Amino acid sequence: MNMEELIKRYNELSQSIKALESEKDNIRANILIELKIADITRFEGETHIVLYSMQKRKVLDKVALMKVIDLEAFQTVNEFEVLKIIEKTG
């Protein structure tokens, strides 16, 4: 395949993935709605078990921390490769 064909195929797959991810997100939301309507936190079907729970986690408040210390003193710079494929419009 030449570069144009590769890019075209990449774009086709990206569009398919976006559509599938959107559909997956909608189905996931509907599953959650069904659990809440039924007032249950566990469902066992033929092929899957669904568990729902509320969880907590601690996160670092960077804004508050920056008021106390200089965050840049604790930061490092990493190099990494970036490949962007941008669709032209118009």
- Find the structural class using helix and strand composition: mainly alpha
How far the N terminus sits from the C terminus, by CA atoms, comes to: 26 Å
Shape: flat
Average pLDDT taken over every residue: 92
Assembly type: single chain
Q: What's the SSE pattern?
A: HEEH
Q: Major beta sheet, specifics?
A: 2 strands, antiparallel
Helical content band = 40-55%
Number of domains: 1
Please tell me how large the radius of gyration is: 22 Å
Q: How would you describe this structure to a colleague?
A:
This protein has 90 residues and is mainly α. The protein has one domain (3-74). It is built from two helices and two strands. The protein is flat and about 50 Å long. The mean pLDDT is 92.
